[in-house]
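Long-time lurker, first post. I've been practising inverse folding by hand and with some scripts of my own, and I keep getting stuck on stretches where the structure tokens seem ambiguous. Below is the full token string for one chain I'm working on. Before anyone asks, I'm not after the true native sequence, just a reasonable design that respects the backbone. If someone could post their per-position residues I'd love to compare against what I wrote down in my notebook.
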């Protein structure tokens, strides 16, 4: 994900390292410093993974995002959190959620 963000002209950083084998993955996506969405990788009933939108909506404040991430960390100590700042975030989200 980090390399993909860089290939798109953006950048990414690991905000929280989780368990490499069991941790869920949460993406905090922004575009030019403006929050766009949070995506979580979830296991579907059929055994495949997909991405779904979770957490604070578009243009949420940094305080709202920090509160959301703190609550998630208390709920799932194994989780990974990546922050991606991508020029065309809406397109990235559409492609990522379509690909699963």
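-- Answer (accepted) --
I ran through it position by position. Result:
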């Amino acid at each position: 994900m980090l390399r993909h963000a860089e290939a798109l002209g953006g950048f990414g950083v690991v905000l929280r390292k989780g368990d490499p084998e069991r941790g869920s993955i949460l993406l905090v996506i922004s575009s030019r410093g403006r929050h766009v969405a949070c995506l979580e990788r979830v296991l579907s009933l059929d055994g495949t993974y997909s991405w779904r939108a979770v957490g604070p909506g578009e243009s949420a404040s940094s305080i709202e995002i920090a509160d959301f991430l703190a609550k998630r960390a208390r709920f799932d100590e194994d989780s990974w959190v990546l922050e991606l700042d991508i020029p065309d975030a809406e397109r990235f989200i559409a492609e990522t959620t379509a690909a699963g």
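A couple of notes from the structure itself: Residues 2-99 form a domain with the hypothetical protein tt1805 fold (CATH 3.40.1530.20). The longest helix spans residues 62-75. Happy to go over any region you disagree with.
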